[in-house]
Write a structure and sequence with these properties.
With about 325 residues, the chain is an alpha/beta fold. It has ten helices and eight strands. Helix 2 packs across helix 3.
């Protein structure tokens, strides 16, 4: 079972061990929580946030008897959600993410304890899918939080019965959009220089390169620039770094409407993981990316093994829409 406040696993463990002292109790604790024993299990991902809800804590609840658990396993969000989705798809059990965590611990325990056909294994599935329909049950939410399966495996099996869908973009890549070559601006350049480039070239966004070197560090947009200057937060002489979207500081994407409306700030400070967009990226992938982002900086690898990726274009929803309209004309 998973461990949160500890009431479930502590109570059940004590009750069962009264009748059979040979029973082994296994607990699941997410990476980032500190409930597991020995303490060394908690060190690798200490203070990290996690998406699975209902289990794990950053303190030890009074109700929880950690010593009564025979074996603790640390679980990851990806495997937990993957197994929860398998339970839904293959067994018809409408469970939540912490049930997937319990299953992940069980799978490892069966191997480690050498259990076979004659043994009885019981897994506590404590939550339902009701509160998570816009979260791990949604492929787009998983993608936005970098929780899609990395390789074909369990998730592929779970979705094998889904009807095949036709790619609306017919396999086309960003190269087919014929984007205009982009101009860049340095993070140390004055805002006035960025404004002049936007006006003269008709750009709404400009990739920003580091003041030293050619590392892509951010994006400056017409809307953001206008907001800063008109409100007095920046002037013509302010450096571009003051008004750009700094890629190193962008927080993780929040896609749950309830979290957005409620102003919740779970795992505040967790940084966004970025997806590399190139001229060979499929338009279907770009379309998914633009559901949660206003624009994408298209890059290509420079020459040499240690060369940095350099921006070659900026692509927006308008570019994608124009391609679709022209194809259907």
């Amino acid at each position: 079972a998973g461990a949160g406040t500890g009431g479930t696993i502590t109570g059940i463990a004590r009750g069962l061990k009264k009748h059979n002292k040979n029973i082994k109790v296994v607990a699941a604790d997410p990476h980032g929580s500190i409930l597991a024993l020995p303490e060394s299990l908690n060190q690798e991902h200490v203070n990290e946030g996690y998406k699975v809800e209902g289990i794990g804590y950053d303190f030890i609840p009074d109700v929880l008897d950690r010593e009564i658990v025979d074996k603790w396993y640390k679980t990851e969000d990806r495997e937990s959600f993957q197994l929860a989705r398998r339970l839904i798809a293959e067994e018809g059990l409408l469970v939540g993410g912490s049930s997937g965590s319990a299953m992940a611990a069980m799978v490892r325990a069966v191997k480690d304890l050498g259990l076979g056909k004659g043994d009885t294994v019981v897994v506590v599935l404590p939550d339902s899918i009701r509160s998570y329909l816009s979260k791990f049950a949604d492929d787009d939410w998983l993608a936005a939080n970098d929780l899609l399966p990395e390789v074909n495996g369990l998730e592929t099996q779970a979705s094998s019965n889904k009807p095949e869908t036709t790619d609306p973009y017919q396999g086309a890549t960003i190269r087919a959009l014929r984007l205009k070559p982009v101009m860049t601006v340095s993070a140390s350049s004055p805002v006035s220089e960025a404004s002049e480039i936007m006006r003269d070239k008709g750009f709404d966004q400009l990739p920003v390169l580091s003041a030293t070197g050619n590392k892509l560090v951010g994006l400056i947009t017409l809307g953001n620039l206008l907001s800063y200057v008109s409100s007095g937060r920046a002037s013509a002489s302010s450096p571009v770094s003051d008004v750009m979207f700094d890629f190193g500081r962008l927080d993780e994407v929040v896609t749950d409407p309830r979290e957005i409306a409620g102003g919740e700030a779970k795992e505040k400070g967790k940084k966004r993981k970025f997806v590399e967009i190139t001229l060979d990226t499929p338009l279907s992938t770009l379309s998914k990316f633009l559901e949660w982002n206003s624009a994408a900086v298209v890059t290509e690898k420079g020459e040499g093994n240690k060369a940095l990726s350099k921006p070659v274009a900026v692509v927006t929803k308008v570019d994608l829409l124009t391609w679709v309209v022209n194809k259907k004309a």
